[in-house]
Amino acid sequence: MNRALRLVLVGLALFVFVRATCRRGPVEVTPVEVMEIADEVYYHNVSITWDGSYYYTLNGGNDDWSRINQYDKDGDWVESFEPELDGRTLFYTTDKTLYAKAYDTDLYTIDLYEEDYDTEEGGLFEEDQTSVGFTPDGRQAFELSEGTVHVYDLGEDDEVASFDLERYYDEGNYGMAVAASDQHLFVWGAEDEILVYDHKGRFVTEFELPREGFWASLSWCNGMLWIADDSDSKDELGTGTWFGYQLKGLR
After folding, report:
1. Burial class (CB in 10 A: 0-12, 13-18, 19+), 55
2. DSSP-derived secondary structure letter, 125
3. pTM recorded for the entire structure
4. Most buried among 110, 114, 121, 181, by the most CB within 10 A?
């Protein structure tokens, strides 16, 4: 064996050894608040989405007091709609459609200007109360129920996988909400803590937000993680505030 080949083999062996013995440190995430939207609704502030030009928020608690608010990119109010839906999640897809999950197991499409909704897929989800997370491309939805994440293919309108989470906060309804980015899932930890997983359910990291939020409000849109304090206004209009955070350090 010549000297050059021996050096190459020694170098490869060292490379493999270093990769095998080194351990990546924890992912450090710093949430930076970049936006607030004061959102006047009935009952509860449950979801926010973005269509590339406007934000849309959805309330929940009673389908007779339903409200979707439209805001411009600066968070200024534009228009309100009443789709008569007891909402849990609202999402705008790249095919220019608003989807919603309400207090039931169906997936809906919403026509804002008809102020009405149609059932897209009946009985798609597992639980009535859950607030699901849609990926930004609109291809998948994730639903958290009793520690299990159910994965749905929205092209096939069917569940395609499921997995159990290592940790999540199971207090009240906090264990029934999940938000999804293109790579990560976000679920509640205790109080103001957020736990981060990848789309296969592998734990990534955890971090604290500077405030607590209403359980169903956990959302991802326009490159930010969102939570809202709750108006809790019943059938009289009240204002809850949405807070949008960029997550520095999370790739």
Report:
1. buried
2. S
3. 0.88
4. 110
